[in-house]
Every structure is written in structure tokens, then in C-alpha cells.
């Protein structure tokens, strides 16, 4: 059935379709509609909705619910996301499958509460202290918000990891037709059968199992360094090193499954755009415009913002004369792109604009590309 | 001015350096209008009929001299400082949602140090922390409790409109039982919020700070006195002001003051103050009701003005209404038992 949904509503619908039965949150613009939707819908379907006293509580309520057996999520925006970092770091350490939606608004601090941005890319990735790997996804339409929310739950459950859904305010509040798929693949965490360690796995690609709610299994959970059985070990080198290595490997060895993207345009482009979220929509138009003018152009749109498959992007991108990374921030994803296209060999430029709710327009990108191409393309330094 | 009454020029309020500033409390409204500048200037973007704007303006008339306001995130914060303007005629700082009390603590501690070092240009600077119910009952209570425990000489003003009005009317710890909000929607099974309001002022009394009081904009003289006592208290003070919100409470634009009056008349929101070492005192209308219980109105009088309680006034919800009345009566009786000036 076709539905006219905002990105926020699509996320809520996607979560329900994925089997989310638990939501805890705290009001914050521009994410509150997700909470309103869940407050209305979850009790009707036998789920639980809790409004917490702040974001610290919201994320920890969700962790508690998740470890108790529920598919649980929360949604917030910049300032609230900052407050949730401690809880997300804990969820990484205890391998609690949770989904955190961050509707990105202009920051830092309270910034511009009602205006879109893409400034939380690095925070989503590295916002916590210590070595920790999470997965972050960035939809570009309400339809994709619906699909990636389901994907977020599946990844969280499969890998026992917090998955962060980064959506910018343009998508969150923009309304488009969403066609929910007829068949939704739902993944559920593996359940302990008995005898397995809940915090260790022989195969580093596979997350350890969790006991099922009410199964009477004895489980010790701590954010301090722990061994496979959950016992605290806050002195030993091997215990800690093996733990954080496994938590990293669990993500990085599954790169082929986690890294999602869309490639659009010429096979071997002169102008390569790498973008994500709402910005990628302007880029698509710019690619069309450039191609109609005879310029070979391509967009690689990242649906997964972390982890990123650098080799694959290089293979897809080929040997362009210029690489343009449009972002609604002062340049964050460009740091990854510069790891692929060495800025001393390639012309890598950011196209950055943030604040005031003004999008990056496609004609700006076309002009930028033509200007750079006209000046010879490759960097002279 | 067309009325011909002399009025002070509107603009930033300044105080002469090196002087002791202690403006007397002024209850003569005409004199007040002629001699005192408002701290909240015209042009702010609060909604028509907003109760909070009235509360802030009234509080401004009870200040005694140089004052700094630390404001938590909320309606007052966003609507009084729309770029490129500000409505504040006195120094004002906003940090984030949860930390008005912490910021105020820092300001107070620094001023104290400056004062001891002889570097403060004024004899005295008052610090007010201003926050709504979300910033006080919920996310801000940790900072508030810390401020109270450390004993910072700050007047914390809670303007309580009983939900997160700024972000779209979500329930808070201050939302009363059975009220509709966007996160406590009313359905055929769940009648709005299912938990009663947190007794925030009593929680602050339990911190054993020098002064705690409740007030409304309808009882303005009482509010003036309480603001002043809070500022003069020798330590942290807490003022809980009920502040109507026509968007969230779903009432007519012109009844902001009337709703507040009825909140007191029905004993839903009794007026009292607590002085450390002396105990609870009923004030104003609530003291009159204690002396003459016939003045006490049934809770319907308060609910009937507000659409957020509409479902409670339906015949099929008679049981809920009765429960609510019993709850209000029990809280009121509890206060009567504690108040030192209530007739025994």
C-alpha cells in the first residue's frame, strides 16, 4: 500500500515493520515525530513506549530493554545524541543490539534546532571514548528511511551492535510516497542454547548468542573489560586486547555485507561525486546536467557511512579528473575520500554549505565541476 | 504615550557601579508602570496569550538590582531571542537544556570570588536560573539538586506549563495525571498520562534550602513577595510558578490568568511558602481557603476550561474524575496538616 510519509514517519513505520516492540525517547526537534508516532502506535500493538527524563535515560532504557529481549530503539537529534554517547559506548562494549536514530540538525551546541545538517558523521563513528566500532546508515529518501530502518534492526540483531541511523532534517520532515515492501526480512539475534559464552565467539565474523528472556540463564553484564563469560577483568592485557579486537573485527570483517551504496552515471567518469543523504539528491541532478553537456560524471552515494569500503569506492570511481564531495558540513566525509584519492595526486574538493536550511543546489555543483575541469582537472601541486 | 502617564524609556536596564542597589517592592501598579523598566521587552515571539511571558514580566518587577538570568532551553529561551533581536533588558545566558542550575552555580561562585577580591563593580548581583518543567522536573533535576546541595545563592524559577511545549507538547514529569499530550495520547483504553505530577517543590523542601514557594501570575502581589524573599534568602531558593499554555492546555487565548486563578481556587495548585526552620505557610488565596473551606471549588472548575482534560469530563469517565478529585483533596489535606498557619 502506498503511503505519503515524512522521513520521520517512515522510520517509525520501518521500525514497526522490523518488529520493533520497544521505544524510549526524549523530546527534541527535529526528531520528535518519531516519538509521537511510537507513542500512538506501539501500545496498540502490544509494544512499550516510554518517555524518559532525558537522553541519558532514554538510551539506557533501550539498552535494558534490548538485553531483556526486545527489539528496541530510540530517536534523537544533535544535542541529545551527544548525551547518548556514553550509553552507545556501553552498548558497544556489552554488545547490546540497539537502533539509535539521529536526525541531524545544525550544531554544535543547540545550533539551529529546526535546520538540516550533516555534521554528525564523525560523531556517530567516533563519539565515544576508547576503541569502538558501530554501524551508521544514511537514507536519502523517506522510502529508503523505511528500508534502512529495517536494515538497521537486522544488522543490530545479527551483529549485536548499536546501529546509528543518520538522517538529515530535509528527509526527516520532507514528505514523499513510500511503498512498504510486501515481504520484510527480519533478523533475530541468535539465542543461547547452553554452554556458549555470551561475550565470545570462535568466528570473529559472528556475534555471540544472547540468552532468551525468561530462559533462566545466568548472565553477568558489565561495561568494564570482561572475558567471554562476562567476568570483569580490568588488569589483564590479553583479555582487553582480544575483546576490543573482536568487537572491531565483528564489524570490519563483515564489510561486504555492511557497506551499501548506489552508483549512478558514467562508468569511467571525469567528475566523480561522493555524497549521501539529502545532498546526494542534488548531486544526482548535477550528474544528469553534466552528462547532458557531454561531461562524464558519476555519483557514488553512500547508504552506509561507517564502515566504508575504500577499495570498492576506488574501483567504482576509477581515475577521475576531479572528485567532489558535497556535504552539509565543513568537510567530514571528504577525510575518507582523501584516503582513497590522495589529494597530492588527485583534485579532491569539498562543496560545503551548512546552516539556515539552504540546500546545496545542483547548479552550484555543475558550475563547480565545470570550473575545475576548465582549469585542467588534476592538481598542479 | 497617548495616556499621558510618564513611562520609563524601554531598553537595557543599567545600574550605577559601586552602589548598593536595593529597589523597594512596589505594589502600586501606577507607580510600578511609571518607575520600573520591564526586563522582558516587547517584540518577543511567545504565543498570544502565553502565561510564561506574564510570569517573567512580573518577576522582573520584583528584582532588587543587578540580576543575571541563566535560562534553560525552552519556550522562553527560543521565543525571546529570535535573531537578530533579544527581548532581554538584563544580562542573559542560555547554555543547554539540562544545566541552567549548573551555569547559574558557576556565575554565582565566580561573582562571590570577584566580590571577595574586590573586583565586582556592584555591591551585589543576583542570579536567577530560569527553566520550564522539562528543564526542571526531568533533564535538569540533577543540576538543580547539585546547586541546592552546594548552597549556591541562586533563585531558581520554574515556570511550569506542564509539558514540553517548545518541542510539540510532549508529557513531562510535571504533566498532571490524565492530561492529553502528544506522547500521552488519549485513547479508548489509556486516558492520557497515567502518572501524577512529581511534587517538585516538596522535593526542593527536602533539600533543606532556605526558601521554597509556589506562585501563579494570577496572584501577582504574592508572586512579587515570593520573588523578593527568594532573592533575599541566604542560599538557594526555589520558586515554582504555574504558567498556563493555551497551545498545550487547549484553552482560550484570553483566560491564561483565569486558569491560574482556578488552579488555586480548586486547590489543584495551592499557594504556599516554606522557610527553613519555620515550616510551610499557606499564602494568599490558599490561606483564605484554609480558613474558610467553603471557598474551595470542585476540580471540574479547573478542568472545564482546558481541552486537554476533555475526556475526563465525559460522563463515562466519572470514575477518573472522582479519582482526580480525591487525589487533589489528599494532597491539599496533606499540606493543611503541615502548614503552620493553617487553622487546626
Describe this structure in words.
The complex is a heterodimer of chains A (381) and B (344). With 381 residues, chain A is an alpha/beta fold. Chain A has two domains: 176 residues, Thiamin diphosphate (ThDP)-binding fold, Pyr/PP domains (Rossmann fold, 3-Layer(aba) Sandwich), CATH 3.40.50; 113 residues, Rossmann fold (3-Layer(aba) Sandwich). Chain A is 38% helix and 20% strand. Chain A is built from 13 helices and 15 strands. In chain A, the strands form three sheets. In chain A, strands 2, 3, 4, 5, 6, 7, 8 and 13 form an eight-stranded mixed beta sheet that branches. In chain A, helix 12 links the parallel strand 14 and strand 15. Chain A is globular. The model of chain A has no long low-confidence stretch (mean pLDDT 94). The longest helix of chain B has 21 residues. By secondary structure, chain B is of the alpha/beta class. Chain B is globular, with a radius of gyration of 20 Å. The mean pLDDT of chain B is 94. Chain B has one domain: Rossmann fold (3-Layer(aba) Sandwich), CATH 3.40.50.970. Chain B has an eight-stranded mixed beta sheet, with helices on both faces. Chain B is 35% helix and 12% strand. In chain B, helix 3 links the parallel strand 1 and strand 2. Chain B is built from 13 helices and eight strands. Chains A and B meet through helix 2 of A and helix 5 of B.
In oligomeric terms, what are we looking at?
Answer: heterodimer
Under CATH, the topology of the largest domain in chain A can be stated as Rossmann fold
Q: Using the coordinates above, name the CATH class of chain B.
A: Alpha Beta
Number of strands of chain A: 15
Give the total of domains of chain A. Answer: 2
Classification by helices and strands of chain B = alpha/beta
> What is the count of DSSP helices of chain B, taking H or I runs of 4+ residues?
13
Q: Which term fits the overall shape of chain B?
A: globular
CATH architecture of the largest domain in chain A: 3-Layer(aba) Sandwich
Task: Give the count of helical stretches of chain A.
Answer: 13
pLDDT under 50 segments of chain B (min length 5)? none
Q: Main beta sheet of chain A: strand number and arrangement?
A: 8 strands, mixed
Q: Report helical residue fraction of chain A.
A: 25-40%
Q: Briefly note the structural class of the backbone of chain A.
A: alpha/beta
Please tell me how large the radius of gyration of chain B is. 20 Å
User: pLDDT average of chain A, as an integer?
Assistant: 94
Bin the helical content of chain B. 25-40%
- Flag low-confidence runs of chain A: none
Q: pLDDT average of chain B, as an integer?
A: 94
Beginning-to-end CA distance, first to last residue of chain B: 52 Å
Amino acid at each position: 500500500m502506498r503511503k505519503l510519509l515524512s522521513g520521520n514517519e517512515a522510520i517509525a513505520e520501518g521500525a514497526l515493520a522490523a518488529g520493533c516492540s520497544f521505544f524510549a525517547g526524549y523530546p527534541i526537534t527535529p526528531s520528535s515525530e518519531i516519538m509521537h508516532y511510537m507513542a500512538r502506535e506501539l501500545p496498540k500493538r502490544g509494544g512499550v513506549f516510554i518517555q524518559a527524563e532525558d537522553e541519558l535515560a532514554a538510551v539506557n532504557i533501550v539498552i535494558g530493554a534490548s538485553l531483556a529481549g526486545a527489539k528496541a530503539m530510540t530517536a534523537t537529534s544533535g544535542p541529545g545524541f551527544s548525551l547518548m554517547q556514553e550509553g552507545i559506548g556501553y552498548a558497544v562494549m556489552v554488545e547490546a543490539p540497539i537502533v539509535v536514530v539521529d536526525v541531524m540538525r545544525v550544531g554544535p551546541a543547540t545550533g539551529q534546532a529546526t535546520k538540516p545538517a550533516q555534521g554528525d558523521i564523525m560523531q556517530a563513528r567516533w563519539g565515544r571514548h576508547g576503541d569502538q566500532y558501530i554501524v551508521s546508515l544514511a537514507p536519502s529518501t523517506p522510502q529508503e528511511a523505511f528500508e534502512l530502518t529495517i536494515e538497521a534492526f537486522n544488522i543490530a540483531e545479527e551483529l549485536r551492535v548499536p546501529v546509528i541511523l543518520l538522517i538529515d532534517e530535509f528527509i526527516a520532515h520532507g514528505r514523499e510516497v513510500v511503498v512498504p515492501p510486501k515481504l520484510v526480512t527480519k533478523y533475530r539475534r541468535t539465542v543461547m542454547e547452553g554452554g556458549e559464552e555470551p561475550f565470545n565467539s570462535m568466528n570473529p565474523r559472528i556475534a555471540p548468542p544472547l540468552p532468551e528472556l525468561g530462559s533462566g540463564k545466568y548472565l553477568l553484564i558489565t561495561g568494564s573489560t570482561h572475558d567471554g563469560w562476562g567476568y570483569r577483568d580490568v588488569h589483564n592485557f590479553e583479555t582487553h586486547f582480544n575483546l576490543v579486537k573482536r568487537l572491531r573485527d565483528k564489524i570490519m570483517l563483515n564489510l561486504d555485507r555492511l557497506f551499501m551504496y548506489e552508483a549512478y552515471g558514467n562508468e569511467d567518469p571525469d567528475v566523480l561525486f561522493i555524497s549521501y543523504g539529502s545532498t546526494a539528491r542534488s548531486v544526482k541532478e548535477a550528474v544528469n546536467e553534466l552528462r547532458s553537456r557531454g561531461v562524464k560524471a558519476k555519483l557514488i552515494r553512500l547508504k552506509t557511512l561507517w564502515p566504508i569500503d575504500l577499495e570498492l569506492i576506488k574501483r567504482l570511481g576509477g581515475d577521475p579528473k576531479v572528485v567532489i564531495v558535497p556535504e552539509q558540513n565543513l568537510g567530514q566525509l571528504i577525510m575518507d575520500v582523501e584516503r582513497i584519492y590522495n589529494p597530492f595526486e588527485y583534485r579532491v574538493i569539498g562543496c560545503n554549505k551548512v546552516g539556515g536550511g539552504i540546500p546545496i543546489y545542483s547548479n552550484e555543483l555543475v558550475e563547480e565541476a565545470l570550473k575545475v575541469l576548465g582549469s585542467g582537472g588534476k592538481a598542479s601541486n | 504615550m497617548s495616556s499621558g502617564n510618564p513611562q520609563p524609556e524601554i531598553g537595557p536596564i543599567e545600574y550605577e557601579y559601586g552602589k548598593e542597589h536595593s529597589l523597594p517592592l512596589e505594589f502600586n501598579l501606577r507607580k510600578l508602570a511609571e518607575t520600573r523598566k520591564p526586563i522582558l521587552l516587547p517584540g518577543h515571539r511567545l504565543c498570544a496569550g502565553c502565561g510564561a511571558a506574564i510570569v517573567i514580566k512580573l518577576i522582573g518587577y520584583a528584582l532588587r538590582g543587578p540580576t543575571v538570568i541563566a535560562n534553560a532551553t525552552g519556550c522562553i529561551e527560543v521565543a525571546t531571542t529570535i535573531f537578530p533581536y533579544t527581548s532581554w533588558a538584563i544580562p542573559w545566558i542560555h547554555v543547554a537544556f539540562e544545566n541552567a542550575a549548573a551555569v547559574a552555580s558557576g556565575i554565582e561562585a565566580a561573582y562571590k570570588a570577584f566580590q571577595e577580591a574586590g573586583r565586582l563593580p556592584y555591591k551585589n548581583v543576583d542570579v536567577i536560573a530560569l527553566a520550564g518543567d522539562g528543564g526542571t522536573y526531568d533533564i535538569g533535576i540533577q543540576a538543580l539538586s547539585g546547586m541546592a546541595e552546594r548552597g549556591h545563592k541562586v533563585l531558581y524559577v520554574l515556570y511550569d506549563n506542564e509539558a514540553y511545549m517548545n518541542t510539540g507538547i510532549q508529557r513531562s514529569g510535571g504533566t498532571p495525571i490524565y492530561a492529553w499530550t502528544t506522547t500521552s495520547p488519549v485513547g479508548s483504553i489509556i486516558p492520557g498520562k497515567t502518572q501524577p505530577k512529581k511534587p517538585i517543590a516538596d522535593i526542593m523542601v527536602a533539600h533543606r534550602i532556605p526558601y521554597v514557594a509556589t506562585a501563579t501570575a494570577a496572584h501577582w502581589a504574592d508572586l512579587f513577595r515570593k520573588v523578593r524573599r527568594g532573592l533575599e534568602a541566604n542560599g538557594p531558593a526555589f520558586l515554582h510558578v504555574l504558567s498556563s499554555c493555551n497551545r498545550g492546555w487547549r484553552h482560550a487565548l484570553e483566560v491564561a490568568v483565569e486558569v491560574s486563578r482556578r488552579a488555586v481556587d480548586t486547590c489543584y495548585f495551592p499557594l504556599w511558602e516554606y522557610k527553613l526552620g519555620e515550616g510551610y505557610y499557606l499564602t494568599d488565596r490558599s490561606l483564605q481557603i484554609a480558613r474558610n473551606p467553603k471557598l474551595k471549588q470542585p476540580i471540574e472548575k479547573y478542568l472545564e476550561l482546558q481541552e486537554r482534560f476533555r475526556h475526563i469530563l465525559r460522563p463515562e469517565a466519572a470514575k477518573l474524575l472522582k479519582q482526580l478529585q480525591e487525589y487533589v483533596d489528599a494532597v491539599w489535606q496533606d499540606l493543611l496538616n503541615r502548614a503552620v498557619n493553617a487553622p487546626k
